[in-house]
Amino acid sequence: MKGVGYPQSAGPAFEEQKTLVVKDLVKHFPGGRTGLGIGAPKQWVRAVDGVSFDIAPGETLGLVGESGCGKSTIAKLILRLEDPTSGSIRFQGREVTDLKGQELKTYRRSVQAVFQDPYSSLSPRMRVHDIIAEGLRVHTDYSKSDIRVRVNDVLTLAGLSPDVGRLYPHEFSGGQRQRIAIAKALVLDTKMLVLDEAVSALDVSIRAQIITLLKDLQQELGIAYLYIGHDLATVAHLANRVMVMYLGRLLELDESVEFVRDPKHPYTKALFAAALPSNPDDVSDTSEQPNAEVPTALSPPTGCHFHPRCPDAREHCSTQFPEEVTLSGGRRISCHLYPSR
Ligand code: SF4
């Protein structure tokens, strides 16, 4: 059985069960003019083009795709670092795209981010205690001793000794710095973390430790995660569900185990082939990998944006954009191989 559109069960009751519900989110950036002169038509970079998804408390949604697919723009829109062109972002049932002043400040307490390079988000001139305490000083009226207790608590939660509060960021390894960044993100009343390539720069063994830490924290605190990465294998391991984007559009979304067992969209198959070659020693095994450069979101290909690189492309793929359908089992997919009727 197939259905069209998202979500199938929309409504207040549906939204109340979710930490975040994103509907038809669009972000277009001005990309100059198509010709010389002020009368020439404007061009637009379609960074995010009608994307819908949701995340429940205690759930991790993985978001993958190559550079330029729109995943970092999605992060900025959710963090309210950018305003959407159109669409809706509802957090715990409340629309957040129009929040201002104190309400926006309160929202930013609840939704925090951890980025790929913790060094850039940790001031080198501040001690770890002060870095983590900063959010409490800005957003709460905690006393000095309350702040010390809370900072010590989150350092312990992140697997660090409270003693490290007197040290500076340069005195830590990359994995420890990421633990500090996680402690900083958790120090307020955090309900959701946007993890933007948060383990991508770490060595494999350290990466595994941070993934375990994130899973343990989620189990203990019930926080929702949006994990953004380019490596589908790592994301599928960390996430409950995975969403694949290409040139601003959602191509496929399903449970992680289903992705690992049976990727269906030709682009997802190509990402998996790149992440998990059938023979690890065979570097020439590129049969399923995309066969051309990623086009620009300034002038995406007509029809299905993936058609110039798709090994399964049909004639109408270059002229008709595939409608999103929901397959039995709940997988959402946008591809003419899975028509709506
Ligand atoms: Fe390939 Fe056509 Fe599906 Fe696009 S719609 S992924 S071109 S088969």
Task: Walk me through what this model shows.
The chain is 31% helix and 23% strand. With 341 residues, the protein is of the alpha/beta class. It has one domain: Rossmann fold. It binds iron/sulfur cluster. Iron/sulfur cluster binds at residues 266, 304, 306-307, 310, 312-314, 317, 322, 335-337.
Low-pLDDT sequence parts: 278-288
In percent, how much strand structure appears in the residues? 15-25%
How many domains make up the 3D coordinates? 1
- Count helical runs: 11
> What's the CATH H-level superfamily name?
P-loop containing nucleotide triphosphate hydrolases
The CATH class, by name, is Alpha Beta
The share of residues in helices is 25-40%
What is the CATH T-level topology?
Answer: Rossmann fold
Give the strand order of the largest sheet, numbering strands 1, 2, ... along the chain.
1-12-13-11-10-4-9-8-7
Number of strands: 13
Assign an overall shape: globular
Query: Average pLDDT, to the nearest integer?
Result: 88
- Any guess at the CATH architecture? 3-Layer(aba) Sandwich
Task: Summarize the structure in short.
The protein has 341 residues and is an alpha/beta fold.
